[in-house]
Structures are given as structure tokens and as C-alpha cells.
Amino acid sequence: MANNIKGKVIPIDELELPEVLYKYRSFNNIYHQRSLFEQEIYLPPASQFNDPFDSKVPFRYREEDLTLENVLKKCLDIARQTESNLSDQQYDEIAFRIKREGLLYDSHHLEQVDKKTFERLCSDFGIYCLTPDEKNLLMWSYYADSHKGFCIGYNTQLLIKQGVFGMGGQIAYRDDFPKLPLFISEDDSPLLNILFTKWKKWEHEDEYRLIHRYKNGNTRILEPSAISEVVLGCQVSEIDKIKHVEHIRQQLPDVKIFQIEQLKDKFGLTKVAVFDDKLFI
Q1: CA dihedral of 157, 28, 170, 138, whole degrees rounded to 10
Q2: Please, are residues 266 and 252 in contact by the beta-carbon 8 Å criterion?
Q3: pLDDT tens for the chain, residues 1 to 281
């Protein structure tokens, strides 16, 4: 994706996405069913995710940037951002106080900043997590009822046109915490970039995130056209398959329906179309 930088938030009109992104769901969860049959999506805060590190990357500056001259300049910037209509001498006094108190280094102060940052992210933003991989064995296992659930495939062009999301991006996976430059460029958003950095242990999910700024609750209704396909898990029984496909065809007649199957000659999954004519009457 030419315009995507992993780990960076991107305005929604500049974000390049795969043609289809998927959401793993369970038929046993009424809210998951509503996301399919009523097109109601839930946009949780990061505090509800299953990764304890999610969106908790600490604010720490690059050591090479912390020269005496840079630290004084940064403290002066902070003073000017936090106070208004003061004289140059007063700003200098505040800057020297910030430096003297070591707020750029003090571990207790930085931990409080990290805590407040996480609280702000959770109160201000809802996140919709998606993946381009509908054949991911692990994600079927722990997000889709051990392969008895389903995947919703969203047409990303139509999904973006719903007007729900203002920004998004692709997750950067790494083993260490990223360090921030002491001086941030105008086109960078380090606070929001925290939402797009995860531990490398999660790399198999190949996650994209779409971000909604909370205004009126944390659910939204999409147009049915945003859903382009539904994929059933490989452990969905034939009886349940008939029931689910009939229901999907009634509610979403234009949606393509597939099922995951296990490969016969090696480990792996494949996606096949559901062709039983009896189901399409």
C-alpha cells in the first residue's frame, strides 16, 4: 500500500485498503449476529481488547535527542503550549522549572502521562479491527467459535463511504517499544499512532484498524451494501449451513456466500463458494 506507513494513523480519504477486509464473528453471540443481519457494528475502546499491551505503548523520547539544548527548547515549547499571554521571561522561568523537575525523565511523571494518554484514547476513540486474511487458522479458532462461526467480508470502498470512520491504518508489529522524536512534525500524530503499534506476537493477524471519534455512543448501522461476502467456518455442520445460508440470502440477497474447507493434501485452509441450488430458491 503506497500511502500506508505501518504504525501511523492516516486520514480516511488517504488510506489505501485491500478490496475486502474481514471481521471474524460467532453465531452464538447475538451482537455478532446483529453485525451481519442488521449491519450494526460495535466500536469498542482499546481497554476492551484481549491484548494487555494494546494502546499502552509508553511515551519515551529517543535518547540521542535529549541534549541540553534540545531539552531546554522542548521545555519552552511545553511552557508555551500550556500557558498563554505570558512574557518571554515568564515562559523562560516555566521552562527552567520543567527542566529542573525533570519531567521529561521522571519515571513517576511519565507513568502518569501514559495512564492519562490511555484513558484519553479509550474515552475518545472507537476502533474497528479487520484483516485481509479470511483463511487464518488461529483467528477462526479464537474469534469465530472454533471454526463454527463466520467471517463478514466488507467492501472497503463502500465501508469508507458510510462516513463512520475518520482515520485508519495498518498495525506495525515489533518486539520493542518505539521511541518518539523530541520534536514532532505537524503531519505526525504520536498519540494516535499508539493505536497502531502491537507486539510481534500478534503479527499473524495482519490487522487494519478504522477509527471512529465517539460522538453518540459506540455502535453504528451500516448500509447492507457495505457487506460483500460472508464466509462460514469449516466446522459449521451441514444442517447449520443450510439454516445460515437461507437466513443470509433472505436478509442480504446480493451477498456472496463461501465456506472454508480443509485442504486434503496438506495443512491449510481454502475458501469455496456455496453452490447448492436448493439454498437459492
Answers
A1: -130
A2: no
A3: 446 789 899 999 999 999 999 999 999 999 999 999 999 999 999 999 999 999 888 877 777 877 777 777 877 777 777 778 888 888 888 877 777 777 666 677 667 777 888 888 888 899 999 999 999 999 999 999 999 999 999 999 999 999 999 999 999 999 998 877 766 665 667 778 889 999 999 999 999 999 998 876 689 999 999 999 999 999 999 999 999 999 999 999 999 999 999 999 999 999 999 954 444 44
* Placement of cell 535527542 in the chain: 65
Instruction: Please tell me the distance from the alpha carbon of residue 269 to that of residue 136, in angstroms, as a whole number.
Output: 8
* 254 CB neighbour count, 10 Å cutoff: 9
**Residue 180 CB: number of other CB atoms within 10 A?**
17
223 phi and psi angles, rounded to 5 deg: -75, 140
Please, are residues 62 and 50 in contact by the beta-carbon 8 Å criterion? no
CB 58 within 8 A of CB 190: no
Q: 235 to each of 42, 140, 238, 239, how far by Cα in Å?
A: 26, 10, 9, 11
**Matching residue, cell 474469534:** 143
Prediction pTM value: 0.84
Distance separating alpha carbons of residues 11 and 211, to the nearest angstrom:
10
Give kind and range of the element (H or E) at residue 166.
none
Beta strands 219-221; 150-155: pairing state: unpaired
Q: If we measure between CA atoms, which residue out of 4, 88, 52, 56 comes closest to residue 197?
A: 56
**Residue 272 to residue 149: CA distance in whole angstroms:** 16
Q: What are phi and psi of 132, to 5 degrees?
A: -80, 0
